[in-house]
């Protein structure tokens, strides 16, 4: 019952703040609630506080004993939601598909697939040596095993 109440309160808060979206929700038998969110424009501490209060302030502590943690998806966490790909257009990704590993710049993200672009060294069509060529691949989200944004310093 508490689980359903929390889910309803969480969904209501996310309907109110449409720029935020759920990455992960879990609740263990001891009522330790964990919510991981992301946002189209990133996530601030205030965003986490908003979600936390939307849940915590609507559950009677005398009736239910629980702990609540609301956090943002980490910078090194794999991308799991289409909206995460869309907000990261222009950034470099490393991804593993069902068939190969790729690294390149995310140049497009739609609701069904992404387009990755990278440079590769290939043998010249004629003669010796190699030439740098631009490569592009359209990849359906369902074919992605894992994708991460490459952090550059």
UniProtKB/TrEMBL annotation:
Q: Does the keyword Cytoplasm apply?
A: yes
- HAMAP family attached here? RimP
Q: Indicate the family of this protein.
A: Belongs to the RimP family.
Predominant location: cytoplasm
What name is this protein filed under? Ribosome maturation factor RimP
Q: Does the keyword Amino-acid biosynthesis apply?
A: no
| Keywords noted in UniProt | Cytoplasm, Ribosome biogenesis
From what organism does this protein derive? Answer: Bizionia sediminis
